[in-house]
Amino acid sequence: MPKKAFITGITGQDGAYLTDLLLKKGYEVHGLMRRTSQFNTSRLEELCAPEAASERLFLHYGDSTDSLNITTLIEDIRPDEIYNLAAQSHVKVSFEMPIYTCDVDALGTLRILEAVRLAHLMDKTHIYQASTSELFGKVHEIPQTEKTPFHPRSPYGVAKLFAYWMTVNYRESYGMFASNGILFNHESPFRGETFVTRKITMAAARILNGLQDRLELGNMDAKRDWGHARDFVEAMWLILQHDTPGDFIIATGEQHSVREFVTLAFEYAGVPIRWEGEGVNEVGIACVPKVSEDGIPCGFIPGKGFEGVPMEERVVVAVNPEFFRPAEVETLLGNPAKSRDLLGWQAKTSFPQLVQEMLEYDLKKLSGK
Ligand code: NAP
Ligand code: F7E
User: Fold this and answer.
1) What percentage of the chain carries pLDDT values higher than 70?
2) Per-residue DSSP letters for 148-161?
3) Is 156 a catalytic residue?
4) Distances from the Cα of 188 to the Cα of 83, 202, 230, 267, 288, angstroms
5) Is 164 a known active-site residue?
6) CB of 224 closer than 6 A to ligand 2?
7) What digits encode the pLDDT tens for the residues 199-243?
8) Which residue's alpha carbon is nearest to atom 5 within ligand 2?
């Protein structure tokens, strides 16, 4: 009998990479999918082998805010492993929707834990909780380890703190195999388009093709420990295969600023950015294709450059305070020593490789190939 996994948040970035991984490992995968007015399974379709998906992937309508639905699904599926990835995962949006964010991200986790308990699956089912480096928020030490005190800085972070401790509490109270993966930022070509890395690579691809004037960003001094989602979902699986449950930091151990991410994305096309000014007046200036009138991509071709394209020097990056947050997390840097020593996990993708893969994907998408 193949192992059965139940993934909430299966349509998201991590859900799609994890589904691909588990299908390759021979699992039967069940996923919780929200009813939406348009299909939202494009990531799964792009990432998962169609044959394995048609035989062993089952999608169920549901929502993390619906206790009955979650309990019934878990009772019916009786999964060996649950990966609770569903979340309102955007930090800035959480300031605009704090109550909804807590319902999904905090209580949603409790609904899963209770469902496993009520279905008498406590000895069978291993549970992975998608915890986050946002728990550290206003950091108390650098780098952060599993022992660093928490100080969340957003409704998202606070909701995830509740979920973290509920997971620990069910483990300690009922002996459940419930573990937290404290994952630092991880990105990919399948990252949501409003997170900063994907916003940058999509805009860079458009600017390099004469389709966009400039990119507007918030705090470019923010520093993150950015890894690749493909590497990070392997850690999720390893956490549930470990002898004992626990809490694990998953990070690369290297940090970069938002500004560095932008610089590297344009450098990929051989375009240097000159940074001028300070604070809200800071701008990035570069020599790029003029914005085309007809909306047809014309500009950078990987391997060829900008042959015959009319170019100009202009501001391509500017600060827009609209993207500032009421409270910011300025710096995050994880120490992944515990996961390396106990799980044998290590990030495989370097920062430049990550930026390059994301930009190449967005350039290819623009060219329609
Ligand atoms: P994501 O791309 O935003 O995906 C979130 C998933 O949750 C989507 O499938 C979304 O469904 C689903 N979802 C949202 N609200 C829901 C609800 N009410 N009921 C059921 N499903 C719901 O996020 P991600 O980057 O893959 O992250 C996965 C998890 O890891 C999240 O819990 C996130 O908070 C956490 N995390 C992420 C990072 C990171 O850097 N990526 C780091 C640490 C922790 P739709 O497709 O319908 O929107
Ligand atoms: O912001 C700054 C912003 O939205 C990164 C989620 O997956 O990782 C993610 O949360 C930094 C912040 O990710 C813009 O202020 C500047 O300092 O890409 P982000 P995040 O907030 O770190 C954690 C680990 C999670 O758990 C979350 O689910 O970039 N920034 N200018 C900007 N951010 C955005 N989104 N847009 C800007 O224009």
Assistant:
1) 100
2) SPP---SHHHHHHH
3) yes
4) 19, 12, 8, 18, 25
5) no
6) yes
7) 999 999 999 999 999 999 999 999 999 999 999 999 999 999 999
8) 196
